[in-house]
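User: Hey, quick favor. My workstation is busy. Could you predict this chain's structure for me?
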Amino acid sequence: MVNLKKTALLLLIVMGLSVCLIAAGQEVKEKKDGVQVASANDPKNSMAFAIKAFAAAFAIGICAMSTAYAQARIGAAGVGTMAEKPELSGRVMLLVAIPETLVILGFVIAALILL
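Assistant: No problem, here it is.
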């Protein structure tokens, strides 16, 4: 059994790091002596783009792992429920499909980071 306090702390640390990576990868548009400094989308500024790409991959990865964890728990409980009460199979299928929205939101966040 996984200790939930350790898991919650690890998830909080991971979320904090992802926010830091997202903030580091944001576009920087400063004017220095009348010249615009390179932004994160500029091909010459490859480090900023690499950080943005890593943050986007991180967002999708965390969402996918969370979805897998949730579906494993819901699926196991759902099979047990359907064994006892087959009339609840529709509700179980709905509950198994709900965590998939996390991955969709992860893709949206990744697209917003990269744009």
